[in-house]
Write a structure and sequence with these properties.
Helices cover 48% and strands 12% of the residues. It is α+β, with helices and mostly antiparallel strands. Strand 1 and strand 2 form a beta hairpin. The longest helix has 24 residues.
Amino acid sequence: MNNKDAITETLAQAVATSEPAQDPRDPFQPPAWRETEEGKAFLTDVREADSLQLFDGTLQVVGPSASAFGRDDLANWMVERAMTVGAKQTVEELDRYIGEDRFDAHLVMVLSGLPVDAEHVLANGTRLVPAHNVPNERLAAALAGGSRTLLPNASNSSALVCDLQLTKEHRSQTDGSEERKRFDGSALDEMRRTLEDARLCLTLVRRDGCGVQAIATPLVAGDDVPNHDWFVWRLHSYRTPSPLAPPLIPVEAQVARSLLDSFGALDPASQDHLRIPMQKLNECAAGFDWTQGAIDLRVALESLFLNDNTSGELSYRLALRAAMFTGGDLNAREDTRKKIKTAYGLCSNAVHNGRLDLKAKDVETLEWARELVRNTLRRMIGDGNAKPDWASIELGGETANCSDP
């Protein structure tokens, strides 16, 4: 910018006579600072600056979305940003944005059911943060605000974050003949898969799973990037996890980091295979209805122990494989086999009858089976073997006890 000093001075004056907004700005109503003489002078400078032609009649592209972001929108952003970091830094950030070809952004998966008190660095460039510490002030404020209605909604307990850089692009709003690059979403899809894998690995760090749910995944620009203060939300379907879940502790985060590292080392086919029982275990842990939970548990058991499409008596083959894979002496294996047959029978009743009348011992059996699924998943990920040689195991091959890594 060739008029940085002048705009910095009028911006500082506009901010000095402005009061911070109590609520997020209504994009359809001019902000109050425009009514002051200092604000009008600053707006005139922005509208007349030759160095800001980038914002004349263009659509600003942020990933797969684009929206009109003109000089007046830029002025609004500058005043709000300057209230936080000062006029000088705001103008420097704008100058850097104009001069560079890329800008910082963040893909954020908002979670429910997994409170955290501090940031935890996981694998593959992913980190887990408290909801109020997401790397975008406006998103943090939106998450803290919650719902303005009386309808119940999932609470925002934490978020998974991946940092990235996006190509700066401002498209003409009027020139229909302009060639427009088609957004290549493959890298973004891969990053979403990375966040989802991190979420699924987090479900394995607690007994019976966490039940952590993904609410939405917005793509947001960095705080220092001039843009609108709204987001494009990619919503997820979710269940309601327990509101009483304790915060994640460092040792659990360490286990999740190790699991995610090991999971990333698996071949793509093995990853795809394990995502199914991991997801079903998570859904089972999130629900309060054991009928639906038993259906999820059955899918997880079949996916883990019947992945070779074995025909014949499924409950017998599943129970035998679970007992042999889990290990232990003959009595322990026989006990596992019997419990798995019982649990599988309960799950099948839920599938075929649509309801379960459970006694206390039945709940204990289902909870035991859910824990067996969790331990099996952790072992398969840790061993790097998502599809064991079931033929060898059935013929009496020894296996180590299935235990937490």
